[in-house]
Input
Amino acid sequence: MKLNLKHVTAHNSLFRKSRGLWLAVLMALPVVGAAQTLTEDQKARLDELDGLLRENPELIESVADSVKRYLKTEQDTRSRLEAQASWLSDERHPVLGNPDGKRQLVVFNDYNCPFCKRLEPVLEEAIEDYPDLKVVNVFLPLRQQMVSGLNTNSARYGMQVWLDRPDVFAQVHEALMSKSGMHTASSLKKVAADTGTGKQLERSAQLGEREQENYEVFTELGLRGTPSLVIGGEVLPGFVPYERLKPLLDDAL
Output
């Protein structure tokens, strides 16, 4: 079949217009569940969008469908978060910051994830700035299910320390996060020796079911990797700089 170059060019032009309009829509949409008062910038973008759609009426249907899909995805995510709200606040999850804090930030974390390690200073700054912040850690060994030479992994070890010795969890957590690269049997044994948690390292092998439960909720929420943050009904995948996190923390109450 011979391609009509004029048709291809027109199609590509239409695609570029549609993509640009969809990006404009996303920029104009308020966050689902947030106050619906439009900012001056959003009002200006909506006026711009109105003009673009009037000039290109053939795109109205596709843009409207895209907005509906976006809103449905956001609502589905919020529904899943609401269904797991009590689980995400369960006291079995290791906590940093204020255990009784009214602001809650959930972090799906991996001690072998470089982006999780990069996020750690951001979380430390948040804990410093917000004395009522409770940081809940849900650990997942996504990058290393089992450590060679040990019948356990860093995630299970961290969870076991929280269950048995919450008084030293922060110290263990800092040591596990500060190691560059993947953990080894040697690195875990050193952390255990330095913090007096050798028994917890041995006992952590029994936490397979807890680890699986973390995986199941992680998957149910539609998350794909670590770190993933949950705050105020919103999911933030990947590394989040402090300037983006702070406004959400301000609204977390």
